[in-house]
Structures are given as structure tokens and as C-alpha cells.
Prior knowledge:
single chain; 318 residues
Amino acid sequence: MEDPLPEQMRAAAGALLAALDGPARARLAHPFGDDARRRLEYRPRPRAGICLADLDRAGRKATHRLLATALSPHAYAQAMAIMALEEVLDRAEGWRRGRHSDDYWVAVFGDPAHEDRWSWRVEGHHLSVSMTVVDDQVAAAPIFLGANPAAVRYAGRTISRPLAAEEDLARALLEAMGVPARAAAIVDDRAPDDIISATRPTAPGRIDPLGVPASRLGPTARALLGQLVALYLDRLPPELAAHEAHRLDGGDLHFAWAGPTRPGQRHYYRIQGDDLLIEYDDTTADGNHAHTVLRRPSADFGADLLAAHHAEAHPRTG
């Protein structure tokens, strides 16, 4: 029988730490209270941790095994495709910026072997996966996946498109809506420049306008909205995805779209629910540079688990 998810992460993080020598381990490991823990940075910027390029084969493999504990098989495949796209983008830019597929960083905050609060993150351009473990419970957010180019095509055929389902399901949802519902869903004729939650350590609890509520959708559109939410939740391992789906069951969902509805142009959508924010944005005029994120505004970086842990460990007295 497979170990529970917290133990899988603990073992994988321990194996990574054991694979590194002293100087490399010092770059990887940080105190749990380090401010860098609560950070989402999907741009090519300096970040905490150690770069895959500076690890040997065993260290890189241990990093990938840790990342795989946080993602379902299809989401792990998306992550690998996104990392590989750095080489494609570097070629398209004439090799000027020196992008490379090993420019991804791993950091561990706290001691997974001895502490009841610890976290880890694998992050780089267009990829950020943060996991927090508190009292053997896992908080999985934020999860950011982006792609540039979003699609590579040849002779009308798609060669690479890691976030295809995230775009296609949303377009199918718009198509399935009746005219009144679509008018409520399209909140702006121009898309924002990026996802609205951006790199903030805390996502907005509510973004207005909310768009169209699921209750105003017909059966087909409502089912497609459910499939779109499930697509993002299913980035997580099955037990976490099921927990999140159960938490959202019966709650209100809203869908909002901004920008043109014709493919090949800048566009954006978001889904909001009970402590849920999903955003998708295509950030360029040719519609070929995508950002997506799954966040829980009150629970990102384990905020809810940490609050419960603090309340139990340090109860207020009258």
C-alpha cells in the first residue's frame, strides 16, 4: 500500500537533502519562517533555493521525484513540457537571453525529518508549485503553469500545446451558454495584461465583476464549467483533488471572461468559488503566451493549516 501523501513528500524531500553535499544543501534548505516561503514568482527572476543546473544527475532526479509527489501524471507531463519550452523560446529570441531548461529552482523550508511544519517549492519561468505540510496535512497552492509559446504548429498541425485543455474547455463553455448568460460572463472587451492575482503572496478574496453564476447556466454549460474546475483540481494528486472537489461541492461558482472570443487574440477568464480562484490569461496580441494559476485566497502557502496549528498549540486564555 502506498504511503500517505505527506509521507511521500517527506521521504522525497529527505532523499533530495541526502543527495546533496554540504554547500548545496545549505543553498536548498531555509528556515520555515523565511519570507521567501510565501512567494509566487513565475517570471525569470532570482529566487531562493538551488538551481537544477547546479545539481548532479542524482540531485536533479531527486528534485523531479519530489515535484512528482505534488502533481498528477498529466500535470507532471505539462510541467515537463513547460520546462522544455525554455529552449524553444530561447531559440525564438535568437539565443539572446540564455534561457535554458535547467533554470528551475528547488527550495525546502523547515526540516521535513523533524518538524511538524515544513514546505517546499519547485519554481522557474512559467512554473511554480508550492506545497506546505502542517501536522501531516498537505496544503497545495498556488499551482502556476504557463507556456510561451503556448502553441507550436506546423502545416496546420499542432506540435506542442501544453495548456490546450485549459483554453479549449473554456471556449466550449462560452459556446454552450445562451446569449443572456454569455453577456453576463463577458465582463470586458479587453483582457488584462496578466493574471490579476499576479505574484502577490495573498490572492484577492474576490475579483469583481464576478461574471455569470453557475446557477444561470443550462445543463450543458454547467457540466462544462464543472469539467473546467476539475481540470485545474486534477493537477493535484487524487486524494488532494478529491478533497478540494468535496469542499466545493454545492457551493457557488462564477465564471468571467475578458477579451475577444475569437482564437488567436489576447483573452482571459477566471473562476471564483468558496476560497477558490482560477485564472487563465493569454498575455500577447497573437494569443500565444498563456498563464494559468490555481489559488486558494485564504489557504495559499498553508495559511489555513498554519492558523489551525497555531490555535491548537497556543490557545487563547480568558
